[in-house]
Specification:
Alpha-Beta Plaits, N-reg_PII/ATP_PRibTrfase_C, N-reg_PII-like_a/b
Amino acid sequence: EVVILSLLMYPVLKSLALQLHSAVTGSYISGTHSIAFINCLNEQIAKDIARAIMDKKLAACVNILPKSSTLYFWKGELEESTEILLLVKTRTSKIGELSNYVRSIHPFEIPEIISLPIDQGNPLYLKWIEESVPRD
C-alpha cells in the first residue's frame, strides 16, 4: 500500500518540487506555458474567438495570423480552403479549459485546437504570461 501511494504521489511531489525550485531560483520550468493553435474560417470569426478567449482570461496574448491556404481531408474528400490561424499563449494548465470553451463557441464541427509546450524563451515574456493568466 505504501509503495502504491508513493507511486501515485510522485507526480504531485515532483510538480511541487519543480514549482518551489522555480520560485526560489527564478528559473523557468519547461512546459509551464503552451502555445495553442486554433483555425478559423475568416477574420471576423477569428477576432470574435480571440476576444472571447481574452475576455475569459484564458490567455495572455492571441495573435491572429493572416489568411493561408489549407488542404485537408474531410469525409473522405480532399478539400481546399483558406483559414485564419490563432496563436494563443497561455498556461499549460489552462489548455483543457481553453479547448472546451473554444469548442463551445466555434462554428466548425471539429475545430483545430492543438497545443505545444513552450520549452524556453525570454524569461521576462514567460513571467508576463504567468502574471496575465490567473491560476486554476
